[in-house]
Records
---
Amino acid sequence: MIKNHNTTRLRRIFGCNLLLLIFTLPLTAQHLLVTGKVTDGNLPISGANVLIKNTNSGVVTDFDGRFTITARPSDTLQISYLGYTTLTIPINNRSTINVTLQEDATALGEVQINAGYYSTTDREKTGSIARITAKDIELQPVNNPLEALQGRMAGVEITQRSGILGAAPQIYIRGQNSLRRSFNDNGNLPLYIVDGMPINSSPLFSQNAFLTNGTDPLNTLNISNIESIEVLKDADATAIYGSRGANGVILITTKKKQAGDKTQVEASVYSGISRVSHFVDLLNTQQYLKLRQQAFENDGVVPSQFNAFDLLIWDQDRYTNWQKEFFGRTALMSNINLSVSGGNENTSYLVGASSHKQGSVFPGDFSYRKKTFNFSLGHRSHNKKFKLNLTANYGIDDNDLFSNATFVSRAFTLPPNAPAIYNNDGSLNWENSTWNNPFAALKNNSRSTVKNLIANLGLEYVLMHGLTLKTNMGYTDLNSEDVILTPIETYDPALWHRVSNTSRHSLIGRKSWIFEPQLSYSKKFGNHRLDALVGATFQENNSNSLRIIGTGYSDKQLIGNLSSADAVVINHDIEMYYKYSAVFARIGYNWKSTYFLNLTGRRDGSSRFGPGKQFANFGAIGAAWIFSNDDFVQKISPFLSFGKLRGSYGITGSDQIGDYRYLDTYQATPGPGGLYPTQLTNPDFSWETNKKLEAALELGFLKDKISLNIGWFNNRSSNQLVGYPLPAMTGFNFVEANLPATVQNTGWEFDLHTVNLQANSLMWKSSFNLTIPQNKLVRFPNIEETSYRNTYRVGYPLNLGIHYNFQGVDPETGLYTIEDVNGDGVYDFNDQIIIKKLGRQYYGGIQNQINYRSFSINFLLEFVKQDGYKFGAVPPGRLGNNLPNQVNLYQHENSSSTQIASQSIFALIAYNNAYNSDFAITDASHIRMKTLSLGYNIPDKLIRSTGLQQFKIFLHAQNLFTLTNYIGLDPQLGTGEKNLPPLQSFTAGVQLNF
């Protein structure tokens, strides 16, 4: 009975299960397994949420960004990740769905921003901080990270002063503050900080004449290893750096890995070409010879072999485009970058190296080579109370450009029928000493090498909840060596008896260390949050420079070995120390994440000032109100998704002068003998002060698909530190002093970001920035009694031109004329009554990024509105080529805007006077396609079997085209100088992640 009962029971259970299975079979058949991968277009996103819409069912992506989820064919997936735009994707019966998330330009409240000694978010910041990330930097074929910022940030003006590889760019953050703007004494340089370590931002000046602007110490950084660059602009952002932040702060953060990341290998390789994209139209041989012949006719002078060898001796049918001969070559470039990273739950590391090589557009086998090595180590204890971050970046720049200051300009002054460069046997052609062969400069052997180490160690320990002790320790060691070997072959053989083999050696060393203990406190209580920071800075810099000249080498092979020189002269040997110390503090407070207040203060001490002047106090206050958090605002403006008002005011200072300038200094004389004075004492000068005021409005519309930031700033720099010029009879060039001059920089900044189109596989985003600056010397009492009366004018910008009044061509003489204002028959300072505002009237950039499935396109247009100087040429009719408009010369029967062809001294003076008048001013505005990038990510299903996480192919163009009416090589400088312009580059490469 029991057995029968159990059998019956089993039958019933089996029947129920069978019936349940029959009913659920159709349901099971309607489900499928969906797999896929979530990336940001470059790297996988770990921890992204993948949900079935309108359910609680979901998964999280693994380290490789992959997910697997069971869903019905009619379901919709919702993929989200912090800081990225959420995507909603119908499954549509697909078993594989790969997703690319776009960074949410409006979710910036969650993106951490480096503010120096602390971090904040774009939503909660009270200061003006601009930021770009690795995706805008890493694949650009540039040598200096500052070049990657051009056109991308409002208020940040960056100019490439030369296309010579390694040349330092010029940078102004919200204008020029200091009257000192020379390359070797520039009081407008911002503060560079790499991973917490301050870097001397002064360019390294070389004996190589092609690098007269100096080389930038940032050149040694690996562009591909930079995670982000933040630029601090207003007082609230910079005051915590005190005197060092007077001209703005540039924070460069290199890449690091988080603890727990598994081993990963990243590699990128690209190669391409660079070239000069634009040449200036000049006269051909027939036009040139006609112009020269007309000059002799006008002057009533008979051409001879002494004054007209281009007409009587040189080939009359020869034509050479000297621009293409001098700098018309195509330069090859290549770049390899490799990094390995990994770790465990408590420790992470990243090791990387790169190699960059780029040829030259000049004739000869010259190149720029850079090798970099980087390392970062992060560790945290098991209880997460102790943290350690160590970074080290080491770079070697090796530049072997030849030395000749006039090489580029000779391309515009040589007649088109000048002799051949080489004889039939390959030797230099001197054409019987009728010309100086410019290619003799190629016989020079020059090399500029920079080795730079930047290391930083950060230690952090949580003393108790909310209270943390931090220490930042950094060290830099930079060594630069320039050698120029000049054999007698660089001279005309007719002069060899008067010259000798020569070598020039220049050594520069910069070492510095910094120690910064800090104590931070953070506490949240109810609707209130308090963040406090107090710390100190101890810094010391040691710099030395040595210049040596060796002459009289007996053999070309011995040049450079100073022991083989007949004479060795040390004309410069200096070692200097600079000490800096400070205490600083910050208090940040917010209520309900709606009202924010930020107070910063710093007391600085500098060894560059005399006793009683060495310390000064600086500080700032910043405030912000996120009014979109107010319910009333949300009701009356449903389209407004974010709104913030912020403002700041503060005082920063500057000690950017040379060391020991408050002392009497002396230099030893050669031989047995004594000292001679080199500087007058002035212990009374003190800190420059820079008062900064800012107000800004930040708005977001349509769920932040449109965001607009409008900022107004007013900075006043006073108590100007300058080298006050002295009369020559004193025996000194200048004495350091504070001048009662005040420089004002004010302006408007606009930033607009839009999400123009957002579909399942298509994303189009745009950004626009515009800066309208105004620079003015608002005060300078008794300027007429100083040497600056010829340089500046009260009420006008520092970048101005003081000129004669141009009055056209004199119908009697056919020469240019200018106005003699006081009628004394002499043209001097008193006749310079025309003041022209030069420089940028406004500037900015337009960037577009379009992603469609695996394809991406990104381009940046940079625009500048400015006036500058005309491209100068030789006076019409003199020896040297000219612009085509010089052919339309003045004739008595019909007027012209160009003076008569003549070689007379009167024609030369008239021409020079015209170019010192408002005649020389022209429009140098331009629009430039700065960057254009195309990318394609190989689909995941095609590379999965290879073990690759990413395989990206990219094409990149730099300086693709320039739209301008400016006649010259490059309108960017607007100075009329004959410098090599920024090069146009085309590269192609691949980026791999394993």
Note: The first helix runs from residue 2 to 29.
---
Amino acid sequence: MKFTLGWLKEHLETEAGLDAVVEALTRIGLEVEGVENPGEKLAGFRVAKVLTAAPHPQADKLQVLSVDTGESVLQVVCGAPNARAGLVGVLGLPGATVPANGMVLKVSAIRGVESNGMMCSTRELELGEDHDGIIELPADAPIGTPFSDYAGLNDPVIDVSITPNRQDCMGVRGIARDLAAAGLGTLRPLEAIVGQLPPVAGEGAGPDVRIDDPEGCPAFYAQTVSGVANGPSPEWLQRRLQAVGQKPISALVDITNFVMLGLGRPLHVYDRAKLNGPLVARRARAGEQVLALNGKTYALDESMTVIADDTAAHDIGGIMGGEHSGVSDTTTDVLIECAYFDPDHIAKTGQKLALTSDARSRFERGVDPAFLDEGLEIATRLVLALCGGKASGVTRAGEPPLAPRSYRYDTKRAETLGGLAVADARQKAILESLGFTVDVEWNVTVPSWRRDVDGPADLVEEVIRIEGIDNVPPVPLIRAPGVARPTATPEQKLERKARRTAAARGLNEAVTWSFISEAEAAPFGGGAWALANPISEDMKVMRPSLLPGLLAAAERNLKRGAPSVRLFEIGRRYLADKERLTLGVVLAGAKSPRGWQAGKAQGFGAFDAKAEALALLEAVGAPVGNLQVMGEAGEVYHPGQSATLRLGPKSVLAAFGMVHPSVLKAFDLDGDVAAVEIYLDALPAKRGSGFMRTAYTPPALQAVTRDFAFLVPAGLAAGDLVRAVKGADKALIVDARLFDLFVGQGVPEGQKSLAVEVTLQPGEKSFTDADLKAVADKVVAAAAKFGATLRG
């Protein structure tokens, strides 16, 4: 929502400057996204008068002007056909920047004649499209005055982000009301603003309108004005609309935009000559189409509300008018529509048609249902003032939803719920300044323009935001006097530990969208959760895995020259049954750069992914020593170069390995890419809830290591052998790890040699040779169950 400071001060009587207004807006919950002063880009442009105009000696289409700047007379070369002695226009002095093209003016020679600046056209100053000649100002325009001051362009434009619940602030007046409640001034009566407009006599009967769809359009008010003269709107109105990004079209259309932006009341104007019969608010018929004002044709269905005559639908109700019945320069008789459309119907229709408009953004939030008569009257008075004509009476079809809403309010909740003690009198003053009615028993009646207020908690919010959220004292959450309560949940602690470990291992954290395209989701089984109203086709489904976002990020980084990509992300994947907390890792590019020792650059492999998976699992408390390496990592991974880490056949904690070539092709990735998925929600819960851990006591006796080399079938997984060896004597064997793999001379075909280091820890006494032999026999026996024999 954009508005100018001058526009705001028409509704708000205040001496506050721009900085104070901006600070107050943010403080009361209307976040300021930006401030721009259009007059700043016109620095260096002055009102100037052409004293003489003579032909250029070297060019037929150029003239040499002498121009009075108010301080001196400068020579300027100009090619405008309307340049002449006596003309008052706008001169750009040397050093000024032309807004339209960014050119910095300087003293230069044009065809051998010195020129000290430029006489400017409307287009060059970005004030319109006219470029046929230079700007012509009234003869009495003060020479030497900065043009931005003369034209009233030094009016800062404030851009405010309006949240969906604040429909009352979709107009300048609503924002002024909030600032007045915040103590920044006084809200001026509306009649004081429009009082200079001609009154509406309203002769004769109103136009013939009716409602056949009371659900979609509960109320439809209308009034006609005959004998209007449409054309360009006055300069003050055009500049006001241009300042906030609206393109002036004609006086009649500009009036509707002015009322919508200023008062939050959308309107529509029809050319009566283009209508056949009465207007009716009804449901669209199957297959019915409307050519909208944006030049596009929309196919409608029976759920949508339209405004139609006896011939066709002319208006997608509350969203956009149609071209066939729109006003033009030849319009002489108009019908002004001021209706109330149901917010839910508007939102659903807009979503189906993928059609947005200023009117839709207001109607779907909910405009003031009590502002129909007054909004229509103000629009009609503006038409009479700017276009002339004679107004009819008003036709009122239907009834707007005006049932009052009232809530019993306990002033103590400002402190218990909002955290700020506010005196009763102050709370009453705040609520009344916002338009609420408060009786002696603290029954608070909600104003018609505050559809978002739906209970006492919302009243607390109003009090606290106006009193000042910054004034709420910080209070720690406590469970006992003086004892702070830990605020992090177990899940948050788990995420924190995983995030820190991943970062410490040299991985860079990525934050990718939870929404992805159907094409990106397809290699991962598709998205179980499809969005009914996606932002775009690239964000149509909820991600079934974190890998699509990470692979897309890796592709972008590699194509921009990154030699190595090591990314991780902690987030949720969305499956058919529930959301699941997951940690994803992608390793792409070079693992290590080329060098005189290593030779060529080394890429990532499946074992790099496994190392990351084990390290991260160990950091978050998974029983790494009990994990089993099994296959079936899924179609996303390369078969034979991937696996899962499990605590049992059904307890999958992680998947890791090389990404399948078909997936890499889908993401336009070249080379090998390794990936890891750790299912944090599948981690076994830790036993015990105490905060203290038993102190570590080192063993009194030194550990003993023994190496075993086994010949095993070539297809045996090394992890199975290591797990069997470690479990051969759980009392004495504290660790077992693979340290060598050999295939070649001395190893029979179809077999491989696996060497395992076994660590034994004595308890109360040192091992004897007999003890070590007994353990060795158990190790060999355990390995023999997998077809392993000791290598000679």
Note: Confidence is low (pLDDT under 50) at residues 688-692.
---
Amino acid sequence: MTDVQSNEAASRPLLVNGEALRLDVIAPQGGGGDKHEPQTIEQAREILLPQVTATAEAVAQMPQGLRAKDRVYVEAKLLPNYLAASYFPGELLAHVGASPVGSRADVGRYVTKSKSVEAQTRRLIFTVTDDGLSRLQQLIANGGGNRTEQQAFSQIKELDEISLPRESDVLKAPDPSETNAQSSTRKIWEAVLHPRASRNGLPEPLDEETLALWFSLIAEEEGVVYRDYIRHVGGLTFMPVSLDAVQTGALARFNPLRVLRPMPAIRPRPRFGARSGQRLASPAVNQPVLSDISVAVFDGGVDTARASGNLFSIPTHDITPVPPNQGDLDHGTGVTGAVLYGLAGPGEQARTPPLPVESYRVLPAPHVPDDLEGYWVLDQIREKVENNGHRLVNLSLGPTLAVEDDMEPNRWTSELDQLAWEKDVLFVVAAGNDGEQDRQTGLHRVQVPADMVNGLAVGACDVPAPVRPWERAPYSSVGPGRHGARVQPLGVQFGGSESRMFNVVSADGSFLEASGTSFAAPVTTHALADLVTRLPRVNSSVLRAFAVHFAERPWMHRKLRDEVGYGRHPLSFEELLNCAPHEAHVLYVDEIERSELLGYQVPVVSPVKAKTKLQITLAYASPVDPTQPTEYTSASLELSLRPHHRRHSFTAPAGLDEKSRTLDFTSDEARNLMAQGWKLSQEPVNKSLSAGNKPGSSEAQLRDSGKWETVRHHRVTLNPDEVEDPRLEVSYVARRAGALDNSPTKIPFALLISVVDESKQADVYNAVRAKFGPLRPAQRAQTRLRTRGTSMTSHWY
């Protein structure tokens, strides 16, 4: 054995190239029984006809200044039984010439043969002409005269309500009647307007003619529109409006308006404690380990005037023309220091930075009106990330806005999610420090944009790994997040606590004391930057998969999921990349097309003599649709584990009242059943990875179990007789505007699978290496130079 082979055997590196273990698989035949219909068409007609008649009458009386010239916006609430994209009432909308432009979250009655419970659903938002509304009224009243009409008419049973938008959904503010003139104050509101229409499934922004009506209405109420800050995201129009609170009710009547809400300010920075006398020494080598991938930090800048040594010899950009504020500089310097060096302490020497880091000073924002600094800061982030090619971005700032149950679209989240998808950028975002705020109002929940579905939200815990016990820092904001990212934050990192403050490095190497998710996030950013240098190739999905897969689960982790996500992040992945003899970690990186089914060998070597634990993490990026808060992610990758290639399901022949059985199809019992007419399943039996994947699960259960989440994590323990030549299948379903989407789209994804012998007796790692030849040990990336002003991403998938 050579020295290289000997060292490799001793270290047992994580194995890559798992995608080479792909198998040819055949999609199983569709199944399922009859769906329970919660109401008949006649019952739906009785409910809906008075509603659509009242809606048509209200539209006829609506002033022209409160509506678009050629159409109105109408909402239809779906029964929770029909949440799946396959039930979208497309024929009904097409018959009346309606164009779907979004949805809202709502609740309704989920009805089965045995129960009726309140469940989450959504209100479809569509535009329709006055004539189209009349056709809808006639269809509901008279039924269908031909096949096309009958098919459209049959879909009314999916609906529970038809109406114009409700003011309570549009206006997110105290009741204007409760606000008197003396307490009324003028402030900035954020108005979000619906798309004009949806063409080929893509929403188009509101037309200029309708916008002119909106501007006139604001002027009538003595309001001001900040037109320089009007932005379009996913067909929605976002704009700031200065207005007295007592006038908001008049604006809320504007039919194309989706929501009017107070404009949030930028989050306040944490307070700092005393400065430490001992300092952090400059790194022995200041040149980053890898130079072709860069990290961006958007914050209060770096205090270069006080810098000493080479601690902060990095590119710094003053984006804001406003002179620096010392508090912002201290915060920005501390965040940047944690990105560069991780968790450092007084008297230590800084480590070599893993990747180049660039600091962008965006605080204080320029002297823009009132609370518009959030719009300005977001513009700078988007522009610099798009143009400068950064692949890893730390955000320890954001609006003071907690994610809400109504999940109305937010510009920060929507723009950054779309940017993350288009540019394959990973935003590491501080979850927020409002965990001790009022739970009844939801102010304790993660703050925008920590609700990103394509990002990595980081909360704070009270001690760093590997110190135990640990728990969430009380101030750390909690979940759940929005649909597509209900598990938020994804994990926690040390951010300081009353008993153990975070050492915030200053530009001269001294330390301040503070606590906050602002500092937890950059420690995780540093760990991920270091991980980039230790793998042959990475992308944003790989980094998110590692952050979740190797998070340390707390005791009673399911109960604490909303508090700490998948667990505590490591300070470094270096040791975790080496496998113990009884385990093997394997990375798969691949892409999948819509409606494709991919199969992969799971690296288990037979015969298995002890219980085997499989740990499986899937991460992918998804296109997003901000007009559809409950359908925000457009892609769903589903996992199916078939642990034993010979164990199939056997179904009794018709007329024989017996339950199905699971047997080894080569066994004598199986042969006897087949001789008696029992039917063998096409594929080996599937092992459920989550509760919602069980046969007969409702769409709501599937969503709760993560059907549309962009990160999944499962742990399965199998007995020796349950596992042999296992395989994992990945399938892809797409949706657009709430309906199934048949257009071709490729989704890149990363899978991490750990195979662990629970007895710790078997040499799993070497057995996997011997049997699965395509797998190879991960090798550290070779140093590559990054040319200033360009992005060289040969190390990025």
Note: DSSP finds 17 helices and 34 strands in the chain.
---
Amino acid sequence: MVKSKRVKPVQKLRQDVRGSHAGGTSLSDLPRLWIIVPPLVMSLLAIAFYFAESVILGPSLNQPLNAPKAVNPDWRNDSVYNERLWGTYRSNVYLGVRPRIPKSLVAGVLWMTYDGKFNLRHTCEHGDGLQRYGWIRHDGTNFGQQEILDKGLTLRTEFMSRYSADVGETWTLRVRGQSRVERSQLVTLIMYVYNEGAGEMACSTSKSNAIEELFGHTPEFSGYRVYFPRKALSQDAVHNYMVSRLPTITNLAGHLQSVMKIGSPHKNWPQIAQLPGEVWSPSDHQHKANFIAYQVTTLLPFEMDMVFETGALSAAISISGEKFTSELASRVNQFDTRFENTFQLKEKGFSDQEIEFARAAFSNLVGGISYFYGQSKVISKDVSKPVDYWPTPLYTAVPSRSFFPRGFLWDEGFHQLLVAHWDVSIVKDVLAHWMDLINTEGWIPREQILGDEARSKVPAEFVVQHNENANPPTFFLTLETLVEEMTSQRKVDLVFLRRLYPRLQVWFEWFNGTQAGEIPSTYRWRGRNETTDKELNPKTLTSGLDDFPRATHPSNQEYHVDLRCWMGLASGVLAKIADLLGENSAAYHSTHSTLTDQTQLDRLHWDNKRKVYSDYGLHSTSVKLVTVNPPQPGMPKFKRRKVNKEPSLRFVNSFGYVNLFPFLLKMVSPHSDKLGYLLERLKNDSFLWTNNGLRSLSRADSFYNKHNTEHDPPYWRGAIWININYLAVRALHHYGNEEGPHRNKARKLYQDLRANLIRNMYNEYTRTGYVWEQYDDVTGKGKGTHPFTGWSSLIVLIMAEKY
């Protein structure tokens, strides 16, 4: 096993401050000192210990790793980077753009429909009840098309950008509206620019209150202008604008509604909401605008552009008006051709409608790539309250624009598996940003909530990240794909791997130290609640599989088969990278050999009675939630766990995704009888098999579809999840092409599972307009949040048979 040779900063400082020998004074000894130490001295000691905690112990928690950055240090001179400087990097709003620069300009679009009430749309919300929204084409760089179906209204939005090293950047947003009902329909469109940082902006307006031009400067854009070509508006369109200073654009829709004036500009129109012009708060004495919005209220249909240009830009470079229309047709054709060349779906016999579904799933993933900047809230057992991580940027995809518009560590490794087949430069950029989040301990916070917009979507109890909590290191799946591709094409990017390698080493050391089990070669997810009696089975959020049943009574003696497999994968990839870089790889090869050794794996995790790989721990086979009376009259009843059979150290008797991990990560020999047992169970519809994909937990399991608390419905206890199904299809494809006694069975299961997943997801997309977070294991219907075009987009690789 690879063991860290360094003493981790927190461990060493803890020894220095608290005493590292038997006679040393610890913080727990302080009460006894009151007997012999005068109060004044005791107060000084308390201050000293507080200083030690907050100043000496704390920094390793919120200090970046002292190593060269993984992000390209010469990014300002990188043409590939600059082509992606501006983008649709605000995935939380229906249409928003920004540059990959902290505290800079952001821009976006709102719209409002009128059906007896004002429905102002800005951030992606389930409650808006849109029939469908999302990118139908997006290349992840400088082109995207989106379709939005609101009540009786179709909006088509298009984004294009262009970069020239000589003169700078330009981009255009076009919004087109079309009625889906026979009657005339009114709509309000609001286009805005907001400056998060330094600089000034102003605008010129016409007599009709139309903004003719918005202009300004920032430290990054010495001079810029924004204008709004109006190609198709009704003759009686009403124009309004707003110039103001806002502290943030969080809840922008609510703020605008609070200042809008209600009126009827035309006698045949209903009352509409109108921006009020200049709005200044009494406390703002400098009157420097940082927010300007332009509103047009018009009858459908309409078409309108928003064009951004830097000051030095020539008209020949800009893309607006007829140039935009012509360029758009070319970009659409280029995208469709590239998509087919990449995934060969038409060649595989898929229909035009099925290809449209795949294009949308892919486009929503890359179109959801966002840029964030801010500070995480973090905590450790060495500090008494949360502290801020250092300010950091993050370029990452997001799982869901409506519900999870932020970075998730284990999700992102799956996301980039798909992007890797499209644009490796994006993958390397994303990987580098995530690896630069590593602190001096080797830890990466598993959920990234950076900036006001991201934080506004997260309940307070989920904001703080604990430094003992891991998340599956799925980036090693991405790296495995990259390294294989580099090696096969003989285009190994040694410069990139050299920047990444020391960070990957420290990350691996952190896992190997903090998540190790008590028995050699075992691992245990930290973060489970050992004292609660409110949960049927205490969650393991850090595993990514949340409420999947583990040992019912968390303890130091348990160990988890999925984490061992992740570590086996990680050590193998690190060994390959070390070999490519000419580094000493012996320790990683040794660890990989140990963790993937069939004999040791079977000894620790094979439950011979049930013929499955399993977790091991303090487990009861009979627990349930029961209603209990409140401690005081008048209080509501509540539920708590009742243990009907005392726990014992044993294999956990549940069966589901966790039990498949040696198979999912291809660590079972193709000749092993264990593989045969797993394939038999896989196909059995009494366990995981359904006609819509593999369910997450056997329907014969006592935890199947059970609430974990009275308010906590089942999550990974039966529903079909596409990321794990992707790993299963990938593994079946592997074993179906390996010599061995189970080859034919694996091939047949591969064909059936692949067909089931494609059919069900396509049918649900056609029925609902969305790709979903999970799918019901009985009906196949989409469940959870939508659109969920993070790892559910892996259906594209399943269709393309790219593993």
Note: The radius of gyration is 28 Å.
